[in-house]
């Protein structure tokens, strides 16, 4: 798969921004998938709207790391999602550690 993803792409006078993604767990695109997720981008955060699996299983650690890597490549700072436990909704926030580092600020000055 590709190593870098950009949220913004310019074509002519239009800039296209990725705001929503549908993720499929499948070996090859076009084949039947066994899990689906809808993800919304808002600022520096990704919110996982839905997580559905064919067998109603929980997502594996590898699945979670795939979401983490996707968010890291988009330069997001957090992933947010809700989980149901014992019929109660619990909100979770995962920090994208690699994207938390403050970046150097460069200020231009005039030289006389």
Q: What keyword list fits this structure?
A:
112 residues; mainly beta; 5-stranded mixed beta sheet; two-stranded antiparallel ribbon; 42% strand
Mean pLDDT: 87
Taking the sheet with the most strands, its summary is:
5 strands, mixed
Order of helices and strands: EEEEEHEE
Sheet-strand content, in percent, reads 35-45%
Approximate shape: extended
Span from first to last CA?
50 Å
- Major sheet strand order: 3-4-5-6-7
Number of strands: 7
**Continuous helix count:** 1
Indicate the structural class: mainly beta
What is the multimeric organization of the chains shown? Answer: single chain
Q: Helix amount, in percent?
A: 10-25%
Taking Cα atoms only, what radius of gyration do you get, to the nearest Å? 18 Å
Which residues sit in consecutive blocks of at least 5 with pLDDT less than 50?
none
Describe the structure.
This protein is mainly beta and 112 residues long. It has a domain at 23-99. 12% of the residues lie in helices and 42% in strands. It is built from one helix and seven strands, in the order βββββαββ. It has a five-stranded mixed sheet with strand order 3-4-5-6-7, with helices on one face. A two-stranded antiparallel sheet has the order 1-2. Strand 5 (45-53), helix 1 (61-73) and strand 6 (78-85) form a beta-alpha-beta unit. It is extended. The model has no long low-confidence stretch (mean pLDDT 87).
